[in-house]
Amino acid sequence: MQTFDLEAQGLRALNETLQAQSQQTNETAWEIVNPRGSHAIAVGLDAPIEVTVKGSTGYYCAGMNKQATVHVKGSAGPGVAENMMSGTVIVEGDASQYAGATGHGGLLVIKGNASSRCGISMKGIDIVVQGNVGHMSAFMAQKGNLVVCGDAGDALGDSIYEARLFVRGQVKSLGADCIEKEMRPEHLETLRDLLERSGVDARPEEFRRYGSARQLYTFDIDNAY
């Protein structure tokens, strides 16, 4: 395992080193020490490497991630895994607002709580939150799955498109055009797979599914002038 001291060696050198790793690299395991809440740690990675951050991070940790596995042994600031394409990002603690924003793919696991706007404008990412999520989570969510093992705040799924939301706890309120939907066998299977991959000990049958009523973004001739 390669160890990188962020305090001593600096953020620019860290990201340049990690971004330089290729598909054929032998240096597949990296440990980052002394992160001290720095912003933009391990961003723009595009190689099948494993990066462990020993502590909490600031803004945009693991943003634009492709292929890599990034494991944060602490909490993450706003925008963790923002615009993620593939790979896996795991946060042992809590995540601040807009976790997984605009993510196109991959898996984001938050073992604590996530703040407001978790999964905003998500476009194919899978997000599993073992705790609660804040208000306006999955706002304008287009594609992918958001799994909440705890409770959800106000306006869940506001202006949602075709993302699927699964919540085990209570939902304070649903946003515009978001409704509770039938949990069919294919949804239970998708949810079971996500829970297993995230290491969550829960039964899919304990969750409820929410999604788009498909009224907000569909043109209705009766509204034409």
UniProtKB/TrEMBL annotation:
<dbReference type="InterPro" id="IPR012061">
    <property type="entry name" value="Glu_synth_lsu_3"/>
</dbReference>
<protein>
    <submittedName>
        <fullName>N-methylglutamate synthase subunit B</fullName>
    </submittedName>
</protein>
<dbReference type="GO" id="GO:0016491">
    <property type="term" value="F:oxidoreductase activity"/>
</dbReference>
<dbReference type="InterPro" id="IPR036485">
    <property type="entry name" value="Glu_synth_asu_C_sf"/>
</dbReference>
